[in-house]
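Chapter summary example.
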Amino acid sequence: MKPTTLKPGDRVTMEGTRHPLIFNKRIPRQGSRSAMNLFHCKEYIGLNGPDDEGAVEVSDADVVRRCMLDN
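The structure predicted for these 71 residues follows.
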């Protein structure tokens, strides 16, 4: 799937995980940094302390290779 086709609120399943991810936003490439996609996972909230929001950063390459859009 193409990362640019994702819209905020889209649910995605990532290969190798059983938890659905919810797309928040895409950060375009800046200089030498590659583009990143920000997702949110309810099952990851609080794993890294009480203020952890369950945020997941996924590169464009991983979205193309490992993600499938849920319907």
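To summarize the output: The helical segments are 60-66.
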